[in-house]
Amino acid sequence: MATRVFGKPIRRNEDLRLVRGMGSYLDDVETADPVHVAFLRSPHAHARISSVDVSVARALPGVVGVYLHGDLGEHDIELPLMIPHPCMPYPRTQRLLAKGEVHYVGQTIAMVVAESRYVAEDAVELIDVDYDLLPAVVDLERALEAGAPTTHSDSPGNVGAHLVQVVGDPDEAFARADVVFTERIEIERSAGQSMETRGVLASYDPRTRELSVWDTTQAPLTIKGSLGSLFGIPYNKVRVKQPDMGGGFGTKVMFYPDEILVPWASIQLGRPVKYVEDRIEHFLGSTHERKQVHELELAATKDGEVLALRDRFLHDTGAYIPYGIAIAQVAATQLPGPYRVPSFRVEFTAVYTNTVPVTPYRGCGRPQACLVIERAMDRLADEIGVDRAEIRRRNYICPEEFPYRRGDILFADGLPVTLDSGSYEAQLDTLLDAIGWHGFREEQAAARAEGRRIGIGLANYVEGTGLGPYEGAHVQVEPTTGKVWVATGLVSIGQGLETSLAQIAAEELGVDTEDVLVVTGDTQAMPWGVATFASRAAVVSGNAVAVAAGEVRRKALRFAANMLEAAEDDLVLEGGRVFVKGAPDRFVTLKQVAIASNPLRYAFDADARAATQFAPARRSDGPQLPEGEEPGLESVGYYSPPHATWASGAHAAVVEVDEETGELRYLRYAAVHDCGTMINPMIVEGQVMGGVAQGIGGAFYERMAYDQDGQLRNASFMDFLIPYATEVPPMRLEHLETPSPLNPKGIKGAGEAGCIPVPALTAAAIDDALADLGVRVRSMPLDPCSLKALIDEARAARA
Amino acid sequence: MKPPPFDYHRPESLEEALRLRAELGPDASVLAGGQSLVPMLNMRLARPAALIDLNRVPGLAGIRVEGGAVRVGAMTRHRALERSDEAHAACPLLREALGLVAHAIVRNRGTIGGSIAHADPAAELPSVLTVLGGHVVATSVRGQRTVAASDLFEFHFTTSLEPDELVTEVVFPLPPSGAGTAFLEISRRHGDYALAGVACVVANGSTRLCFTGVGPTPVLVESDDPEAAAAATQPADDIHGTARYRRALVRVLARRATALARERAGGGAA
Amino acid sequence: MSGTPVRVTVNGRLHERVVAEPRLLLSDFLRHELGLTGTHVGCEHGVCGCCTIRLDGEAVRSCLLFAVQADGAEIVTIEGLARGEELHPIQAAFRECHGLQCGFCTPGFVMAVDAYLEEVRRPDLTDEEVREAISGNLCRCTGYQNIVEAVKLAAKTMYGEA
């Protein structure tokens, strides 16, 4: 095919509007006469609400309504448990508005609707609530002690879930191991913090009884189904549109109270109702992730071959567990990383705490698991005295061992963990060259001679991506423009899906990428699909687009064969036209085929008139649309993966530590990434680099600073420190492409990968910079103060 | 995150501003650059009954190097002073410190007088003013007076100014000829408030250090002894660092800043 | 309610409005009174830089100004840069270098860079200079490297090859 666009670094279609400020994000959507919402949120981590007085707030001019849980009638409900699992003894989810008790700072108690957000906030301040304070549960280990206070007064304890999984025979392996050690590894809580907060705009039309909702959601079809069933509105009269999205990172896949309350208010009031979180609400009301405490035991031979792992970890699920055990389970299954590890036992306990609920944030358990295994591999290398790169080499799953199944342990898709393909050693070799691993000791010694401490660290990861169950795509050649229209059920969250999917359709249909219009996140355009999460959009939707576009291509050739009175095999589809091989002037345009495929008589434009010069698209002696045929040059296709496909990567960095101040600087960074066949390498690189920056945040800058009372003490961008350009180093990226054997395009997911290894390699690089002091990093993120404390402790231990 | 209601006053002369200041008293806040005040309003951490916006008062902005000092009108933007080659030639410490005040876009709007009157002990300029032995001109309907930096900063966000007074000019004396100066700070990210910072002047064999972020006011230490500096400061614990850590930074900064200032004194330029 | 009249020139066009309450933020005024929704609001406390505009030439945070303060001012927002369908060189460079993903921070970056390049007027920018210049704006998607490339490319386009 002449116009190859698949696999090319093509500039993005969406940029043309976004760089001009012509995107349409949630708060940019205007409707006539909207009212605005603000929430009264709990100032306490755990308290009983003894009384609420909203009378003064209701009387404030400009206030349209003030609602408490009791005002919601039949909708005074708890949010659904999105992913149930039998290992959860008492699964708890949040009520739309608190009833009786609040369980975290930020929980919604009252909803105010007013003529402006300014007035709504004024009214929130006028609501008078009496609280009886209850003890707050914050610390994971204390939460599990006998007699500890409970996060929910009516629950018997703080165990959100408990699960043990075993592969092979770890105890036998430990018994015969030469090297055994234990590491306690902690990682702190963080959050996605997309630049755009969440928001909902709902408009219910009492005449047509249609509910239109604009929602910054990664799962519009979930919202559509839920709202339809909650409010008794016919499925096809609920339209959910996800506008341009200012980042998602997993946080926006959850179901939040406002996503029901705002449409509810619109139905009550018969007016459009808008709610846009402010940044503080995004800290206190949208979900977090990451906090885990692991105790890992590793067993290996004296040559450094890992025989078994035993890991017990606590996972902080916050006040509720709406997403079930997804994060803990992903962490558990990714623990062995790219290594063989024939036996392992992993046991986790998800713990309720009086903090913001926890659901997946980009990485979803993987940065934690990566930190744990990679710290252990570094320790193993140090224990047996081999290079930290070499120890990986000795344990990688080799290319000939794929598919590599890890016993009966189940991944987040409910299917056995089976790594489908990978080139881990080649990946490592590429990385070592890219970062300058081999000459580093000289470089380090030279720096040391100048009084500077530099260190190098690396980390590997694998990532199960592209989960099912399925996605679909509707591909149509428009009869009016001849352009290709693609609709999917899942959404773009800013990662460039409008272009990646366009490239797939363009490749199949022989058109320019710019002539493919991709619509994502409009439930009226494509009513079937799942959602954007787990690095699955390109894999699952991408293959669905290929299926549908392939069918459109076959149709186009079939119709054009009739029109040109030629054999299908003699036709070429290229450059937006179908022509006869060897006779390029005998052609019809795709637009003309699309027109002819629809047996109407109209001739609004030249193409339509021209189309009538050809034979009809179909020959029929009977009806113009013969039985079994459909009008239009279009098709709907679906793709359902057999199971997750496993991407991989290896990253490394050189850092400098100021041992007097605890400051850390990344001097250079290299990443090798293998997400199978790439649709658009430019987009993949962008995803990886953005993930790395987020990972750097998670390694040295960002953490949720809860105090003992469950107050989040840094709920703003002044104190939650997202790295600026000055904190993120230049990055060198290398790609490997080990195609996935699981899908026709060979694609693996790329969205989350970048952030996964950064805490692990940063810890390793810090160790290395301070190796002579005996510093070993066991918790992430660090900051200058805690890094200085590690240095001081190490010095004191040596003295 | 929307500000609470307030009355808005936009005086068009200094006389009008001073009269409003006298009439409205402590319930009114002065709006200069707004880079600290407006975030506090948006978060509803400040709720003044009224704002007196000085941005239309003529004559309050300007930079003059005269009488052995850089004299800066209160409404002069940080960026204007940072860009002033004349001020830089006379007192390089200013540009060095201003480069660390948040980010350029904040400095485009933030004012010198606002930074001083806000009296944030973690901010850079109060330490610069203190280490140079500078003063402000405070004006009210009752007249004008000068207040030395050493008398101005009383506590976190608290100055000795009367509620009817406005800072109208900030006067940074030039260091003695042959002096070397330096401003260093340790911050979490570039542009953040310092975990600890120091302004340093070395002249005629004596050293003056003034620290930011490690006490309720800028902490002046007339010594190059890191231990003396550590003893003089009163750092507190917060989420970004412990008091013990900050005190360690004070020692490091004292040593590094003194060395750098001495080197510059020796080299003439800075 | 009487309100305060505000006359402001935005992207070359004079707008006259009566602002009901002086507390209305300039960012909200631009977005919801004038419909110029390209100026985004990311934090409303002056950290993220999404709301950066040019006010009388200087790049400023529009969330830290009140609409009444802009009375008589000349403002340029992201919508004022392109000429019809033709992208401004900074916008074109952001697209060329993949300096954006979700695009939410992009208008703020572009406006900050617009002011910066106009001040330095050089084609030969170093990475360090550019990182310092854009260090008042947060981006959560790109990791900044491609933004740095975009700024350098725009400088070359606008001020000639180094």
What does this structure look like?
- The complex is a heterotrimer of chains A (799), B (270) and C (162).
- Chain A has 799 residues and is of the alpha+beta class.
- Helices cover 27% and strands 25% of the residues of chain A.
- In chain A, the strands form seven sheets. In chain A, strands 3-5-1-12-9-10-11 form a seven-stranded mixed β-sheet, sandwiched between helices. Chain A has a six-stranded mixed β-sheet with strand order 7-15-14-13-8-29, with helices on both faces.
- In chain A, helix 9 (326-334) links the parallel strand 14 (306-318) and strand 15.
- In chain A, helix 9 runs parallel beside helix 10 and helix 15 (537-564) packs across helix 16 (590-596).
- The longest helix of chain A has 28 residues, at 537-564.
- Chain B has 270 residues and is of the alpha+beta class.
- Chain B is 34% helix and 27% strand.
- Chain B contains eleven helices and 14 strands.
- In chain B, the strands form four sheets. Chain B has a five-stranded antiparallel β-sheet. A four-stranded antiparallel β-sheet of chain B has the order 11-12-13-14, with helices on both faces. In chain B, strands 1-3-2 form a three-stranded parallel β-sheet, covered by helices on one side.
- In chain B, helix 10 (226-232) crosses helix 11 (243-267).
- The model of chain B has no long low-confidence stretch (mean pLDDT 96).
- With 162 residues, chain C is of the alpha+beta class.
- Chain C contains five helices and five strands.
- In chain C, strand 3 and strand 4 (58-61) form a beta hairpin.
- Chains in contact: A-B, A-C, B-C.
- At the A-C interface, helix 1 and helix 18 of A face helix 2, helix 3, helix 4 and helix 5 of C.
